[in-house]
Structure prediction request, 200 residues.
Amino acid sequence: MKLVCLDLEGVLVPEIWIAVAERTGIEELKLTTRDISDYSELMNRRLGVLDREGIRLPEIQDVIRSLSPLEGAMEFVNTLRQETQLVILSDTFSQFASPLMEKLAWPTLFCNELIVEENGRISGFQLRQQDGKKKAVAAFHAMGMHVFAAGDSYNDVTMLQEADKGMFFKAPQSIRDEFPALGGAETHPELLEGIRKFIA
Ligand SMILES: [Mg+2]
Prediction:
């Protein structure tokens, strides 16, 4: 049995923190794992900024609700789900993703969870496991599945390498040059073509 695992941000929806930074005007929220490589450290920094600015989860969800999936993503996901099985593997948090998953008609998503107080303050986060995308693909392998994976950034590389076929989607040229064995697609139709070759 064959399965497609996709990254979420940069493949189906925009980068959520970048959008939140732009809509709130807080530049510091634009920091990414390229600036602070330790993800937990980066998240603690972001949560500290939200506290300082008094921004709670409902306000962030309002911002996220105003975003749209990337152009063509909805059609791509619909077609894919008719032709094979899809699981989205993301480092984001379920509370952030849900307003966008609604717009994609609720495909399966495995990600992380925020710890939220009753008043909406985000007090922490719970990572499902370290290197969760790669471990999910390894677990699907243990279930006898053949896996195609696609993503756009460094945090996808181990998932793409673990998969039977891994492909970058709109990844920066520098990352593609670093991992030339992984193919790349620039548009959803091109990615769909790669997936169809894999599931054929
Ligand atoms: Mg991404």
Residues 7 and 151 are 5 Å apart (CA to CA). The mean pLDDT is 94. The first strand starts at residue 2 and ends at 6. The radius of gyration is 17 Å.
